[in-house]
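Hi there. Long-time user, first ticket. I'm pasting a complex I've been working with (about 662 residues overall). I'd like to know whether the download I got is complete or cut off, because the file seemed smaller than I expected. Thanks.
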Amino acid sequence: MALLEVKNLDVIFKLRTGDVKAIDNVSFTLEKGERLGIVGESGAGKSVTAFAILNLISKPGKITNGQVLFEGRDLASLDDEQIRDIRGNQISMIFQDPMMTLNPVLTIGNQMVECLQAHRNISKEKAKEIAIEKLKAVQIPSAETRLDQYPHELSGGMRQRVVIAIALLSDPAIIIADEPTTALDVTIQAEILELLLNLCKEFHVGLILITHDLGVVSQVTEKIMVMYAGAVIEQGPTEQIIHQPIHPYTQGLINALPQQTIPGQRLNQIKGVMPSLQDIPQGCAFHPRCEYRQEVCSQQRPTLTQYAERLSACHFSQQFLDK
Amino acid sequence: MNQTDNNLVAIENLFKEFVISGSFLDEITFEKGKLIRKRETVKAVNGVNMNIAQGEALCVVGESGCGKTTIGRLVMGLLQPTRGSIHYAGQRIDDLSRDQLIPYRRKMQMIFQNPYASLNPRKTVNYTLSEPVAYHFPELNKSERAEKVAEVMESVGISPKWGDRFPHEFSGGQRQRISIARALTVDPEFIVADEPISALDVSIQAQVLNLLMDAQEQRKLTYLFITHDLSVVEHFGTRVAVMYLGTLCEFGETKKVFSQPKHPYTKALLSAIPKIRTTESKHIKLNGEVPTPINLPSGCVFHGRCPHATDICKQQIPELDSSDSTHRVACHAIAEGRI
Ligand SMILES: Nc1ncnc2c1ncn2[C@@H]1O[C@H](COP(=O)(O)OP(=O)(O)OP(=O)(O)O)[C@@H](O)[C@H]1O
Ligand SMILES: Nc1ncnc2c1ncn2[C@@H]1O[C@H](COP(=O)(O)OP(=O)(O)OP(=O)(O)O)[C@@H](O)[C@H]1O
Ligand SMILES: [Mg+2]
Ligand SMILES: [Mg+2]
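Hi, the file is complete. Here it is re-exported in full:
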């Protein structure tokens, strides 16, 4: 049994202008200690997927179909009390903006102690001890004195480290990181990623890393799930997806990177933009932007099909694979 | 800096400090029986020398807070330098009055980082684009003005039919293209682009970068391009200026800087680019944290994080060497042949 299994998940937002299916039949698994990357353009449904796992979808949104099985239990069926025992405890979340997690009026120490005492029955002294241990694990220098500092007294990189330390407090089985380094500089980004990677390896923690930076996922994760307009369009081992993507959208994302063209030449842009979820085209959602499209693409929606270790939703994936 | 006729912009010994201690009363403290006035300042730019050649795309890179935006705003005349000078086409511009600056307001344009904040949400695209044209080209009549705006909209891939729409009706990439169109409508010669693509998706980033390169070719534009994304610099920049804490540590032709980075900071920066299709990462780790520009370190601002720092680095500010004008570096260890 996988540690986490998401099965046929649908999320619908009920808006004034009609229903929007933000997540369409998404399935994936995460084994103990495994690292998964979710990539896709803005609005593809990456964050909604993460929120749905933690049962954090609130009105006007709703999980309308599917299951989120954590150690075999369906999280969607748990009551508030039960889900709180899992959220922030067995499954931790790191957001793009560290200030989503950090309370500006509390010292780092107080926040960490509060967090620990919410889930465990321990003394303040013991909690402080654990807090210092976790700050050291994320390589924060002079951890003891940091406990008395406020978030605004730390640099962006330090703050994100503190957020990771908080995510580690409960020794979670899974960390979900939603664009954890997008707000940071390259040098600090590289440090934070290396840190996450090492922590996951050392403590055997599962990781779901959400980003639109393919360079980042390719360095940290073992498998990748690519989303487009709410649906999974390609999924498989990172190596294979980066080296031989078999969906034209994944190919487009990789080819658009400046690294993929000779300096000074025009970049390979994917033409057009992702459709709004309210008018997803007939057939394959990507076909208006696809350079390989045939008649079938505008008529028939390709199903997510298995190709060896991979899944892809394109009528022509087999051809790309044979190339 | 090598002052050639080819220079469009010349920045000399530029300094900018921001006072952050607040009002006069906040600056007064009572210490050891005496009233003392303390001003706290952020030293955002500290003695920068830089020239921008006609027709080039000069990229400025560096970590958050190193002073990139401040330099852009100083060049545009949106901020007054604390010291130093800025020349545009041979004419000193940093000490001009508002009226004297008007002709430069047309020739020099800025594209701002955030496409969501830089467009007025209550104005239609048509209004946003035609207002600067009306101001800078009063001789044009209404239909000539509309024609000019339509032409620029076409060139950035926004249909002129959408002119009556408001910014919120566009995607991030489209909004950024509208900001670019706004900069282009007044026929500028020089554009400061402050992180024009950082807020966008990879696929949209490629669109906008292509657009900027096309515009450069068609209109013979000169760019000062501010970014912290090095893979973009390698692609786009003719020359690159690497900044750390308000000073230049390396400055040269992009090809040279990327193939043979000299400064320890540049080396670390380049090694940190997440590359796809390479498995091992050879990322060079730096010691310590970025110091704040409030308490600027003595000597070389980088010494606290540098693996090669010695006493001289802590005492004396290194200058950009002048042995090779196409690739310059400010580092004692290199000057002394230690690295
Ligand atoms: N509270 C909400 N109400 C209505 N629609 C929503 C809501 N939250 C998300 N959506 C819609 O769901 C879709 C997926 O959004 P999501 O935040 O998951 O995108 P994302 O892939 O994380 O994008 P980004 O890279 O910009 O973070 C979007 O079209 C968004 O407009
Ligand atoms: N108006 C201001 N008042 C006070 N301090 C300022 C002001 N503008 C900038 N600063 C400070 O000056 C320094 C340089 O800021 P600047 O915005 O130029 O950095 P940057 O290199 O553009 O960073 P980023 O990559 O985050 O945009 C920072 O420490 C910043 O806090
Ligand atoms: Mg998101
Ligand atoms: Mg800036």
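A couple of notes from our side: The longest strand of chain A covers residues 18-30. Chain A touches chain B at residues 41-42, 141, 155-158, 184-191, 193-194, 212-216, 218-219, 242-243, 252-254, 256-259, 261, 263-264, 266-270, 273 (CB under 8 Å).
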